[in-house]
Design brief:
The protein is of the alpha+beta class and about 260 residues long. The protein contains 10 helices and 10 strands. A 6-stranded antiparallel beta sheet has the order 1-2-9-4-7-10. It is globular.
């Protein structure tokens, strides 16, 4: 398993966080992994069949091209045989603007001509060309749907940069609007409430910090991210990941070993 990240074209960056490619080059084997709640929407194209399950024993096939994200529940994923996955991580307003996506409502894009071309290129091993087709598709969608960010998007951008610590009352004051009005615009433009997005962003930040500094203390991490205390961080992490931070570190080590990340 090998994983690589790429920066999207500059015009896309207000809507798209990053592009990535994952290779699974072991024919005849199955790779099972965990899909944790995410702070971004994820657009993926898979060259090989893959499945997922959400707290059940039955595996459900995933579409070859799928836009999903901002869920608050972990899921199990399964890839069988050799294959590649090309992904784009979109800010939720970007996914909504570009594709009309609704939060926590997966969107099957497999029948779009661009998606068909991308998956065919991945099967042929032409990863670079597949990325070019994807970026060109996103740029064309951007030109068609281009719009000025509303107050909901402006507030969401602050949440991503704080990360997730800004209070909705302060955001409303900065934008000269009532809290209730901002919450309505936020849901309309971003797809979830400010509280839900802030929760997912902080969860993602905890994951990032644990990955970068596995030997750090949870007490310090809780303080840095403005949790009440370590117990608060533990409860919130368990609620979203269905595992404790210590269990996540073990999971992360196994995943990095499988993906060839040192």
């Amino acid at each position: 398993m090998a994983y690589r990240e790429f920066t999207p074209a500059p015009p896309l960056q207000p809507l798209v966080g990053r592009l990535w490619v994952m290779d699974h080059d072991a024919p005849g084997t199955a790779y099972e992994h965990r899909l944790l709640p995410e702070r971004l929407a994820r657009l993926t194209f898979a060259s090989a069949p893959n499945w997922e399950r959400d707290g059940r024993e039955v595996w459900t096939p995933r579409p070859a091209a799928l836009l999903a994200g901002l869920t608050v529940r972990p899921r199990d994923g399964l890839v069988r045989g050799a294959g590649r996955v090309l992904g784009a991580e979109l800010f939720p307003w970007g996914a909504k603007q570009l594709f009309g996506w609704q939060a926590d409502a997966p969107l099957d894009l497999s029948d779009r001509p661009e998606a068909v071309a991308i998956t065919a290129l991945l099967r042929a091993g032409n990863v670079g060309e597949a990325r070019e087709v994807l970026e060109d598709w996103l740029l064309r969608r951007l030109r068609v749907t281009d719009q000025e960010p509303g107050r909901g998007v402006q507030a969401a951008r602050v949440l991503y940069t704080t990360p997730g610590e800004a209070k909705v009352t302060r955001l409303a004051q900065a934008l000269n609007v009532s809290v209730r009005q901002l919450e309505r615009e936020f849901v309309r433009e971003v797809g979830v409430t400010p509280k839900t997005l802030a929760r997912l962003i902080r969860f993602g930040e905890v994951q990032d910090r644990l990955g970068r500094q596995p030997g750090g203390t949870l007490t310090a991490l809780a303080h840095d991210l403005n949790f009440t205390d370590q117990a608060h961080l533990n409860r919130e992490f368990r609620a979203l990941a269905h595992m404790a931070p210590g269990q996540y570190l073990k999971f992360l080590g196994r995943r990095q070993a499988a993906e060839g990340i040192s």
